[in-house]
Give the backbone structure.
Amino acid sequence: MNIQRKLGLLCAVATLSAVALPQPGAAAPSKAEVQRAVDRGLNWLATRQSKMGHWQGVQMPYPTAMTALAGMALLCEGSTTTQGKYAPNIRRAVDYLISRSRSNGLIGDPTRDDRYTYGHGFSMLFLSQVLGEEEDAERREQLIDVLIRAVRFTGEAQAASGGWGYVSCKDQPNFDEGSTTITQVQGLRGCRNAGIPVPKEIIDKAVAYIHRCTGPDGGVQYNSHGGGGRPPISAAALACLYNAGEYDDKYVPKVLAYCKKQFANVASANFGHWHYAHYYYAQVMYREGGKDWEEYRDKVFAKILAEQAADGSWTDSFVGPVFGTAVNLTILQLEKNVLPIYQR
């Protein structure tokens, strides 16, 4: 290949990169641009739902978790089980998750999912948001029954440390992990907001667990046994403290300062799990509001829009496009202020 052709190819790559990636100081995307991206993403998500009503990942299927997260993204649009463009998709997702509710309260299938607490927690979150808008009396009673048993299962699955592992403590004693703990607490908060009884001691133990896992610099470690501060888990833990109503918790300013430092560059993914981290950090920043939210929003929206595929989806290297798309759509729709769990 001659030097002129090489230079030509390099210039072409540089031009594509300039178009594809948000540049420092670039104008924030307009509301119309954001809405177009959301519309394309929601359409992609809706068309990927199986006939059974579920979604799943690629490398790691997690059908229960993926269904709940995809359902949340559709709820953020404003549709419910009975009204709106995506009502049929939401109804099928609800039917699927209800069908996965077991007699012991677990929402999921432990024979197919070796990390079933994720799906259980996200399902509590999704179904609790559905319950608030459900108009059918019989379906409301069904959802209430599922969620009461789900809360009971979560309480029984809690480890002695106050956290939760990838599975119930009955299946794996003496193990806990930060990210699954946050999933349970947010699900429990959604249930409590929907009128489902949630024992206070479960939340109190979880908050104490987060306190023990918080290092001097504000970073929240992998679990109660150590593992060092993890930016994604720290962002999730901060959202968890807010969900638990701990707005004045003395740990909040410390963890918030740590997160602001870690996520100052929204394009950075040195810590891994970008979508998971910003799913929670965006919730934190939105609750903070004001200039902090606006500056973060403009940067993260620009990055998300620049990375949208031609078919409307987003990818995630760990789980797959359903996860990446559902998370990005949730972030992009926070300002719609539709779901109680995300409201200020």
